[in-house]
Amino acid sequence: MALASLFHAALIFLVSINPVNAATAPVVDLGYARYEGVVDAKLNITAFRGIRFAAPPTGRLRFQAPSPPSPVTGIQQAFDDPPQCYQGVFGASVTNPLTTRDVDQTEDCLFLNVYSPSLNSKVSLPTIVWIHGGGYAFGSASQYNGADLVQDSNNEAVIVVIQYRLGLFGFLAGQEVKDGGALNAGLLDQEFALRWVQKNYHSGDRNKVTIWGQSAGAGSVLQHVVAHDGKTSPPLFRAAITSSTFLPSQYGYADTVPTTLFNDVAGQAGCNGTKPLDCLRAVDSATLANININTILGGFFGTFTFVPVIDGSFITQSPATALSQGKVNGNILLSVTNANEGPFFVNQSAQYDVAEYVRNLFPLFGAKESDAAAAIYGSFGSPLDQVNQIMGDSIFTCPTYSLLDAFHGNAYKGEYAITPALHGQDVINYFPSFTAFNSTLIYNNTAFINAFTQGFLSFAVNLDPNEKLLPTIAPVWPKWSCAAETEIVFNKTALGAPHIVPTHTSSALLERCDFWKSARHLTAQ
Fold first, then answer.
1. Is the distance from CB of 218 to CB of 245 less than 8 angstroms?
2. Which domain of life is it from (predicted)?
């Protein structure tokens, strides 16, 4: 029997012969290690926290692609959240807005958590792989309790929450890394975890995997959608969900920006010799972690310094170009944005010249192009209102519509519009135990929350948000296409009642997105 089948069969066998209680200790054999999990007797959910899916990316494996873990003997306890990857910040911020738990940081962080319905005897449960956000700089599996999604799915799905290398540990680029290491190591970690799911966990029909992420996690989903020119083989997922797709500038690996960053990191580490990458591998991880933070802090406010690049193999061309050519992995897409994505990433106390802001956000813009952008957003009120909208449109909302277009009508679009509808305020609806940024539930209405979350989970299980796992008040969710630009808006009335309606996408918004599409050679997206 394949390892994948063994894993799920072991769970079914154990819970069928033992009462579900705190003493139940399911053990799974992955070939390279045996892990003991725990059963939540109240929720009837089996959890394995801290499964190693790759070897420690340390020493000679630093800045390399992930590799299989070495075999270990004995039973490994998978009771607690794993240590998180070294955390960063975002530009001009002195605190980490996502670090909320006392979890150790380490370079040896390639672990994942698995959550499964204990009493569901189905052999072939759909699997959702959650990719955390955090600007490719921070975030961890510990912040997202997969049991929340198991419950949301009515015990119809298995949830896998993964970690990946962050900041310079995962996204240092430049010719030196190309020649002596692996570009986009953080993305390769994610792909390695997806292959782990195919090989070691997902039982039965391996075509029932959905990848879902928020912010940079959603940006990661986009990267996997366009990976290998849309020809990833064998396929690693059938469906994709993005919550606030994040697409910052993505330069070629040897362009000026990645090269300058590599040289800056090497200089701070005292690695200016003939073999700087070898030197960086010898630097202790705590020193590199400090360099990572210092470098990111030097970036433009609200931006993230170490992000994916065009590497020529995993990502062969700009994501926007790949999407325009319809070169995608996966068969179907669901994407949701917040009505006000931008303000979280904009200094709300600063004074702005709008054209100058555009040039800071996209350094390839000249005066003519930045003036044109400023003119388009002149109707949005104050300069602060304009740059809030520019940030939201250019980095989050418009890339989402480009992603939708690439699926040629086999996609769904939604908007979370409960005021103020800031970036991240949707997350706590489907992860009620989430305690990081923007984690206050701003509309505590059970009918609304169920309608919102069931769209995601029904889509992941049935490939259709309208084929509901549980009854909700949501109307029919229409598909989005260029010919029928209709999405569903999740809002409330002035009297506080849920207001969930299909709406024609704003033509003014789509016109602004056309501008950003036309400027993609300057935005480097």
1. yes
2. Eukaryota
